[in-house]
Design goal:
It is a single chain. It contains 3 helices and 5 strands. The strands form 2 sheets. The chain has a 3-stranded antiparallel β-sheet with strand order 1-2-5. Strands 3-4 form a two-stranded antiparallel ribbon. It has one domain (5-91): Irregular (HU Protein, Chain A), CATH 4.10.520.10. α1 (5-16) crosses α2. Helices cover 42% and strands 29% of the residues. It is α+β, with helices and mostly antiparallel strands and 92 residues long.
């Protein structure tokens, strides 16, 4: 089962006894805060759950799958998530 955004909003509303409107606003705010932090190079750490950070992916060689021609993929920032111990244990 895949939990998409509306499903997640519904679950948050149920668990927190918030309206769907308030749960949507809370989720949107969380996503905005994490996105802004990662844009600024900050790390977001939620003890027990995990941490979000942006990492630099170095320039690398690849190939165009349609033509087979080699290309250079430039260096760039990518988001990363590392699960915390409590989350790992809960999933097991």
């Amino acid at each position: 089962m895949t939990l998409n955004k509306p499903d997640l909003v519904e679950k948050i509303a149920e668990k927190s006894e918030l309206s769907k409107k308030d749960a949507t606003a809370a989720l949107e705010a969380f996503l905005e805060v994490v996105t802004e932090a990662l844009k600024n190079g900050d790390k977001v750490q939620l003890t027990g759950f995990g941490s979000f950070e942006s990492r630099i992916r170095k320039e690398r060689k690849a190939k165009n799958l349609q033509t087979g021609a080699p290309i250079i993929v430039p260096e760039g920032k990518v988001p990363a998530f590392k699960a915390g111990k409590a989350l790992k244990d809960a999933v097991q």
